[in-house]
Amino acid sequence: MSKARVPWKAVIGGSIGNMVEWYDWFVYSSFAIYFAASFFPEGNDTAKLLNTAAIFAVGFFMRPLGGWLLGRYADRRGRKAALTLTVTLMSASALLIAIAPTYEAVGYFGALVLVVARLLQGLSVGGEYAASATYLTEATPRGRRGFASSFQYVSMTAGQLVGLGLQIILQNTMSKEALSSYGWRIPFVVGALAAAVVFYLRRNLLETEAYDEEERDHSKGRGTIRALLGHKKEALLVIALTMGGTVAYYTYTTYLTKYLSNTAGLPKETATLVSFCALFIFMCLQPLAGGLSDRIGRRPLLITFGIGSMLGTVPLMTALGGVQGFGGGLVLSLIGLVIVTGYTSINAVVKAELFPTNVRALGVALPYAIANALFGGTAEYVALWFKDSGIESGFFWYVSGCAAVSLVVYLTMRETRDAALSRTELATQGETVPTRV
């Protein structure tokens, strides 16, 4: 493996925005129970929560659009410019929610402000993943890319943990009445301030060498759908390899707490603690697995995830449904998350290594956003639908089936670890630089 140094400034600047994104994403969902009554008239509490959830869902619909617009922007204006824009949208969306007026003050205008904030948040999340993945991959020397890009999921998980930690603190230091009155605004103020700090860090990042080479060539068609259609196979590959990974990820992260509480019957506090501890260990595993992929390749990790998820989901989820305490829940949850690590630790770098520079960000962004909206964003709904239908185990087989489809892709795709991402890297390999069509 190459002994090249890891560019930590680039790694931190390129990945830390994911922490703010997922923090914002988490706190909206978790604090909805406190602010739902502020934006809708007196009446059925369930209806208020449903209205708030509907606004939350708007963000998922915006992610493919954000992937297209901001992926195109990253290919045409640069990775640094896209990273700066996504964090600006993050800050604006969090600030809008923090200052949104209540129904009592302005009627439904407050709910409209929430919708606008979620639209901005969805656009931002849709573009952040690709801009971050592309930047981390291009800014890191070959031989360390797997390790560096794994910090994308380190920061994403950290965002969820910070949001969960702040929720626990506020719940234990404020009354429910205070949280419902004004306390729910605190996490969004924190999110807006954190995004401002990330904005400062990203303004001082250097553009990647691969993009600078592309820009000097004044190449046409950068970041366009037409250019992406020239790489249909790779785009379909991103959708297929994401399918199993995103379903498994949402199953063992966002859905896990509800499953342990509703099916296993653990107290909500215990289920939350299991998720917190499991996610923390999962976060620490990402760089280890990413570094391993730099030694043995990306495909072995993906194949291990595919086999583990395909064969292990049904028995693992069945066992989780019968746990009776913290210890058993933590051990079984960790087994699932260790399997998922084979996907999460390297999925960003694999996708970026599939595409040429002129369409790399869009090639990662749009297919990933489509797959995530279709399979990741719907995972919890599908799980609850099976449970409501009285065949909860059907969801376990659904997750296994998605993993099986992705496994076929992992077994047949090419290894990307040694892909050259710039002309300089091609030259060091002694290869001929391909002529642009």
TrEMBL record:
GO terms for molecular function: symporter activity. The chain crosses the membrane at residues 21-40, 52-70, 82-100, 106-130, 151-170, 182-201, 235-252, 272-289, 301-320, 326-350, 362-383, 395-413. It is a multi-pass membrane protein. Keywords: Cell membrane, Membrane, Symport, Transmembrane, Transmembrane helix, Transport. InterPro entries: H+-coupled_symporters, MFS, MFS_dom, MFS_trans_sf, Sugar_transporter_CS. Its main location: membrane. SUPFAM superfamilies: MFS general substrate transporter. GO terms for cellular component: plasma membrane. Residues 10-418 form the Major facilitator superfamily (MFS) profile domain. It is found in: Cell membrane. Belongs to the major facilitator superfamily. Metabolite:H+ Symporter (MHS) family (TC 2.A.1.6) family. May be a proton symporter involved in the uptake of osmolytes such as proline and glycine betaine. This is Putative proline/betaine transporter.
